[in-house]
Specification:
The protein is mainly alpha-helical. 68% of the residues lie in helices and 8% in strands.
């Protein structure tokens, strides 16, 4: 293969098109299921899930935004909605008042618990069920390498 070519070869093009389908269409399919079953978006579900996994279900908004691949303004709008529904509570970080902490409330945890079964079923059906255990391991290894490269790029290194 000519590594200087400005074009993708046929195998690369096929892989790229499949990856684009997953990156673009999968979130849309997950959004539809979550909107229909739980009244929240895939992004909102991800925010609730990330908070639930944090120590004491509390995290700095800036860290949560980074983990959710979000901007702080986008996350702040979601936090406004969540706070109005009683799903999160925000307060200044006592260790550094320049930061704001978000804590998942019991009501927010309940929303996540209620939303999870349909979402998990959909993820398993779309992502895991079509693959053998070996394919899942290979995909995991490949995606980890791609994700690390993308993270480096987004962090400016």
């Amino acid at each position: 293969m000519d590594t200087q070519s400005p074009w993708l070869d046929d195998d690369q093009q096929d892989l790229w098109q499949a990856l684009l389908t997953v990156v673009i269409a999968l979130p849309a399919v997950l959004d539809r299921q979550l909107q229909k079953d739980a009244g929240i978006s895939n992004f909102e579900y991800g925010v609730l899930a990330r908070l639930s996994m944090a120590d004491q279900a509390t995290m700095r908004l800036s860290d949560l935004a980074r983990l959710c691949d979000s901007t702080l303004p986008r996350l702040s709008k979601v936090m406004d909605r969540f706070e109005s529904r009683g799903w999160v509570a925000r307060r200044p970080d006592p260790g550094d008042g320049r930061y704001t902490l978000a804590t998942l409330t019991d009501t927010g945890r309940q929303k996540l618990v209620e939303s999870a079964p349909g979402h998990v079923e959909q993820v398993k059906r779309l992502v895991f069920d079509p693959l053998s255990a070996a394919q899942r391991r290979h995909l995991g290894a490949a995606l980890s390498r791609i994700a690390a490269t993308v993270r480096q790029e987004t962090e400016g290194h």
